[in-house]
Amino acid sequence: MIFLAKFCNLENLKFHPNKLISRDTIDRVFETARVEEVIGEFVQLKKAGSNFKGLSPFSEERSPSFMVSPVKQIWKDFSTGKGGNAVSFLMEHEHYSYPEAIRYLAKKYNIEIEETEQSDEQKQQADERESMFLVSEFARDYFHRILLDDNEGKAIGLSYFKERGFTDETIEKFQLGYALNNWDAFSSEAINKGYNLKYLESTGLTIVKQDLLAPNGVKQFDRFKGRVLFPIHSMSGRVLGFGGRILTNDKKAAKYLNSPDSDIYHKSNVLYGIYYAKQSIAKEDNCYLVEGYTDVISFHQSGIENVVASSGTALTENQIRLINRLTKNITILFDGDAAGIRASIRGIDLILEQGMNVRVLSFPDGDDPDSFAKKVSTEELKEYLNTNSQDFINFKVSLLMKDAQDDPVKKAGLIRDIVVSISKIPDRIQREVYIQECSRVMEISENVLFSELAQLDKKERREASGKPIQERPLEPILIKTPQFEKIDELKKYEREIIKVLLLYGNNEVDFIDFEEPEVVNPHKPNKLQKVHITNVVSKEIYLNLQEDEVEFTDDTFKHIYYEVIEQLNQNESISVDTLVNNANSEIATMVTNILMDDEKHNLSNWSRKNVFPKSKENDLSKMVLDAIYNLRRVLIEQKINAIKLSEVEDELQRTESLESVMLYTGLKIHLANRLGRVV
């Protein structure tokens, strides 16, 4: 248990099956937790002015791009764009759930966790699951102890792992074990220790059969007797089940045996090694998918940790979604045998269907990931993985083209098979790119491929709806690569307004505005008059946007703005902490990014070079008004363009449209004068 606490932080994250964390406790955690202290346990931080900086824990880099602000109690990783508060860091870096992160911080800061009661039904269900977890954790510790300390365990189990080339550190890390070749050695030990036979049976560790001759009417058997054992963990590190390998040549027994499905273990929802791989997968932005337990362990021992296994089962949608939480990129590593190839082909379409990117890699004849990793050095293994992976089109072509080359029917079937895979991709642009690649590799017209793709789409929709669909053939989308990406000006200035609200919303400022004179001379150009107004920044922005009836187009900005307005109405001030700790992760991330924008210059130590960025507070009045006027300008330009593009046949309507354009153009010129822009 000492080892497990060290690696899994289970002591910190102790599960409370009958309770839900109270709102007061969560608030106390947010009030007490210091983001620099929490992150400092995982990242080496150095002082940088009022902030701290360090190397990103989410990417490989030599220059620091990771910034922590103790004042704002937020962090920002400029290399990946990630950011947030102490809780979001634990969720991102350690892949904790929200309750796990709260419990971790409560433990760290000695905050008593107040909990609310669950219903009787919820209690019973949680109690059952927790009992099964406890039994599984006892089993893991028991099997590991037998492997290391028992004579039979050392002679058979430990020697097997040593023969496979696994080090003591690797055996300890993965908590490998051995079950004695005895019918009930484990079950008897567990019962003697006070564990209920009910949960030994429900986890599948013990097989229970009726036996009238037995003292209590039943007889129990150890499911995994005589096998070496691989504990299977959840994403957070809890033991869900086991995989057991037989070491004898008994042809009647399965070579590998997994725990049966239970309330805590569903093999279609689990990936072996995901707990050990999660950080590396997120950091490398790629996941290697292998078949077996030893493949995973050998890769880890070779220094490649972003690897998981489907545990000998066919890849499922739920397993793919588990990887999707960490990365969009999967590389399938398959054995050179026919079964491995078939499994890889089946998995490709499932991965594509989930909107993920898939590459495939095969090993030389006679090798699998485990044996190949043992043959070569870490550098050679990494080089092989980087240079030999293929996209799924080239993989299928290289795999099947030899047989299809001289057979037009087989070649047509191969092309159709590739198009079927492409049809699974939800993104249309990605589809287009792969169609072009297939056309190039297979030397076939794009139009033919698009026609086939359209037929597949039509068939799928017809089957889904149960009736025929009449539609025109799908035409290819012409992909043009622009020289410059067009900036969304409206979104740009919406963000600027939100930024001003968050950073300076509570500041009182002397605004200098310009107004038309009360007396207008028709013979002379009207000169704008200066007007001095003192107002709080947030109120000034609110009044201007309300006057223009401006509605934010970006949903996240809209939510932030409404939250700010609600705070102003209730408290007459803005609390940024509320937004940073918002339950909506998109809002929290956006707010963090905005708050940390101006901290980026601290990473470059400009002060040492006698370069000091100008304080924006000095130009706050101009900043606020510029943001408002620019937003108005863009909205007016959109209005003018919409009128120009509208088709009006009636002469009177055309005249009215022209007058509207002239009116809006006048407003645009008026705003340009205020902004000092040339129209």
Fold and architecture overview:
With 679 residues, this protein is of the alpha+beta class. It has 27 helices and 20 strands. Strands 2-3-4-5-6 form a 5-stranded antiparallel β-sheet, with helices on both faces. A 5-stranded mixed β-sheet has the order 15-14-16-17-18, with helices on both faces. α18 (408-423) crosses α20, α21 (489-504) runs parallel beside α23 (555-571) and α23 (555-571) crosses α25. The chain starts with a helix and ends with a helix. Mean pLDDT is 79; it is low at 1-18, 471-486 and 606-614.
Tell me briefly what this model is.
This protein is α+β, with helices and mostly antiparallel strands and 679 residues long. The N and C termini lie far apart (72 Å).
CATH architecture annotation name of the largest domain: 3-Layer(aba) Sandwich
Oligomer: single chain
The CATH class of the largest domain: Alpha Beta
Task: Tell me the fraction of residues in β-strands, as a range.
Answer: 5-15%
Strand line-up in the sheet with most strands: 2-3-4-5-6
Helix content: 40-55%
Termini separation: 72 Å
Uncertain regions spanning at least 5 consecutive residues: 1-18, 471-486, 606-614
Radius of gyration: 32 Å
The major β-sheet equals: 5 strands, antiparallel
Number of strands: 20
- As for the number of domains, it is 4
SS content category: alpha+beta
The mean pLDDT is: 79
